[in-house]
Amino acid sequence: MVTVRPMGPDDLGAAEALSAIEFGKARSPAYQLRWRTRTGHLLATDPGGCWAADDDAGLAGFAVSFRRESNWLLATFAVRGDLQGAGLGRRLLDAALAHGAGCERGMISASADVKAFRRYRAAGFSLHPQLSLTGRVDRAALPAGLAPVREGTGADRDLLDDLDRRRRGATHGPDHEVLASQCRLIVLDRPAGTGYAYLDDAGAAVLLCATDEGTATALLWEAVASSAPDADYEIAHVTAANEWAIDVGLAVRLAPATEGYLALRGLAPPVPYLHNGALL
Prior knowledge:
Blueprint: E1 3-6, H1 12-23, H2 29-45, E2 50-55, E3 58-68, E4 71-79, H3 88-99, E5 105-110, H4 114-122, E6 126-136, E7 150-151, H5 157-168, H6 175-182, E8 184-190, E9 193-199, E10 205-210, H7 213-225, E11 232-239, H8 243-251, E12 255-265, E13 273-274
Parallel strand pairs: 4-5
Antiparallel strand pairs: 1-2, 2-3, 3-4, 5-12, 6-11, 6-12, 7-8, 8-9, 9-10, 10-13
């Protein structure tokens, strides 16, 4: 027998481990800590959207969802392999979706898993293929002069909230605090356009939002230029609507490959925008 119940802080370790297994990715201790910090933050801000399932073997699955203004977002969702196809995924997703009742919009960064695709489509989502561009950056292709970005601070919160609402219809709210604690925030604010990006330790843009494609492109060039010369680099979560990001990746000789879907309900793919995989 499998029991579905509210998820709690004590589930974070087992949930991270299950997520790593089911998504088939080896994770460094630093990544594991970031995952637990981010998911613990969502548990604290939106406990009603977080659900877990147990059986005699332990944690059988979980779904972490949250609301930001009129947006419902699914951060992460996993079911133990031996229970997939038995209806548990539907039970967990239904519990998470109920938390978003009344929200105008929904967003999920989905894997290429066929069962998940069917569940999201049945829940009324349109699924838009997304790309990842990876490889060593051809540094000879970097522009000679980069735009004058500045380091972002907590004083930029109103600016970030305004940009979020323009692109995805709702702010990231308290999620900016988690992003700022784990990433470098850069801001470009000029008469021609405004935008921001969070960059991880490798210089990859884990979230990018701007008023226009020219500003978004300038922010992404700054991100690419900050990459290490001798390391692989990635531009992730690029929908077909964001061809400006594809052009930057191709210019520095990164290789494109399809990587899952951006599932949306109540809105078109945000442009110009590179979404965060968990905080969207």
